[in-house]
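Morning - iron/sulfur cluster inputs below, output right after.
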Amino acid sequence: MSTSLSTEKSKGLPVIKISRTVIQFLSFFLVNYAILEFIFKTDFSAIQDFLRVLPFLHSADSAWTAGAGLLEYVFHTIIDGKVPYLFLGLIGAFGLFTGRIFCGWMCPTGFIQDLLAGIANENNRFSLNTDRALKKVKGFVLVVLFVLLIPLGYYYTNNPKNYSDYSKALGLFAINPVGPFSFSEFFFVTFPDIIQSIVDNAAVDQLFTPENRVRTIIFFVYLIILGFSIYYPRFYCKYLCPYGAAIKQVSKYSFLKLKRLPTRCPGRKECGICEQVCPMQVRILDEGFDGFTGNGECILCLECMEHCPHDAIKFAKPF
Ligand code: SF4
Ligand code: SF4
């Protein structure tokens, strides 16, 4: 099913959309200061320690890259044989108090997908059942990560021999578990490094050195996923992002959510624009009137609110 996103209600400038794009643009560079270093050939190492405390991308732990997100901190803590109370608590607090607003307004990967979706300016959607099934994939990825890494942490503290064997079997994955699953790391840290080495050595075969080969393959897989997001907005967020899978478990119960006013909304048959423009394919009109999060899938982009011709979508009271 395809829907043109040009179903604007005629009430002037799309202020929310413009504000969100500006914030996404600024966040893109704040979160990925490595990009600024790359573009401007600058060294921000003096402020690196400050940036590393931001719970976004920058971590000294990563062997493949300098990137890390909150979820990566969770996994690195598990690998160290500790329970990641702090980072799980942070994810929980973010989800509870802000829902998935980071995904909608700040995540650089989300921003790129939004820009790409603007090329086709249509919202293709999978059938309800396919969408439901695909939305489980990111959760499956997350569970696999936990299942593989919890024994590693256990062996680390309790059985050095098994730890050594198991970490060897997991290879690079044991060192940087989220790396291959982190779209951001590949686009904003790893691949610029590879490009830099191509430029420095004036040799395209840098893409295929033993060190870079797997990274290059993963990069092209992500490029294909980006291609999907031109026609299926937020394809990666909806179906594949492990951070999305984690935060959605909490944001289902978020204090920050939207609601639909039954007195203003004529329903799906007479209108249904909100669902047509929702990039996360939330079934807004099947949700309760007190507040909805689309089972934690709503990224609070507010497209539905901005496009609703009857001003029927508002923020819900937190309690
Ligand atoms: S919430 Fe708004 S856009 Fe959605 S069906 Fe109701 S009136 Fe239409
Ligand atoms: S329900 Fe509304 S705010 Fe939430 S993702 Fe969909 S369009 Fe955005």
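Note: Residues 260, 265-267, 271-274, 285, 308, 310, 312-313 surround iron/sulfur cluster (ligand 1) (CB under 6 Å).

O.
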